[in-house]
Amino acid sequence: VNEKDAATKRKRILCLGLFACLVAIGAGVGGAFAAAGNRPAKYPDCHVGDPSSIGDGKCHGGEYNSEECGWDGGDCIEFNTEYPNCHVAYPSWIADGECREGAYNTEEC
Asked: pLDDT value at position 41?
């Protein structure tokens, strides 16, 4: 099986309605999705808008960075260790080289 065929088999595209398309990677880093509720099978109590973001290598904030979601499939463990009192919507913006205002520019972050 060539690399292209293997990638095609791993991807499942589910289009729900006209504007909502979800790309589910069956054997991806975040794991397969549970049959009911579009939740990552590895995290059955994780309820997020885009389950394919779990474990994608980028720390997402909010409900993704929770115990139920495995701290975003492990993506937020380093952030949570380095910035335990920093609570922002986009953790990946911390220490990204850009100066931001508000909660991003605080001692905690």
From this structure: 77
- Going through the chain in order, the beta strands assigned E by DSSP cover 11-16, 20-25
DSSP 60: -
Instruction: Name the β-bridge partners of 33.
Output: 40
Cα separation, 40 vs 37, whole angstroms: 9
pTM: 0.61
Helices (H), the chain: 3-10, 70-73, 77-82
- Taking the C-alpha atoms of residue 85 and residue 31, their distance in angstroms, rounded to an integer, is 29
- CB 11 within 8 Å of CB 23: yes
pLDDT greater than 80 at residue 56: yes
Chain-centroid distance, C-alpha 81: 18
pLDDT tens-digit series, residues 12-54? 323 333 233 333 333 333 344 443 455 667 899 999 999 999 9
Say how many C-beta atoms besides its own lie within 10 A of residue 18's C-beta. 6
